[in-house]
Design brief:
This protein is α+β, with helices and mostly antiparallel strands and about 120 residues long. About 45% of the residues lie in helices and about 15% in strands.
């Protein structure tokens, strides 16, 4: 097993395990881990799966009776930095850029987004 020195707490940890103290002491470390997770092929496949299930439409626009196909992004309802699951279909929703910004700013209720995800998954 390979070990590394933690730049935040100064202790030595296994290289495949992030420092739990790093997450508490340094929110930027959580952001780094989230960005790394979004760069994986697993995430890319899951993102494509969610878009396909949403018929390449913004799920909020669709619920409002509009069909928006441009600028689609997959949004984590519970952010990865707050303990959300990367590949959980019920934590993901397909949104246009405008609605994604609103969701990130808390202007769209999380429960409403979860309801849309459940509807997409036929649950």
């Amino acid at each position: 097993m390979i070990y590394k020195s933690c730049p935040i707490c100064g202790r030595i940890h296994p290289s495949n395990q992030p420092c739990k103290r790093t997450y508490k002491a340094n929110p930027q470390a959580r952001d780094r881990e989230a960005r790394k997770a979004r760069a994986t092929n697993q995430w890319k496949r899951k993102s494509l799966e969610v878009r396909e299930k949403a018929c390449y439409l913004c799920e909020v626009c669709k619920a409002q009776g509009k069909l928006t196909t441009r600028g689609l992004e997959v949004h984590h309802i519970t952010k990865l930095t707050q303990g959300g699951e990367l590949l959980d279909n019920l934590n993901l929703v397909c949104l246009c850029v405008e609605h994604h910004k609103q969701a990130d700013n808390g202007e769209i209720d999380e429960n409403y987004l979860r309801e849309l995800a459940r509807k997409r998954e036929n649950i």
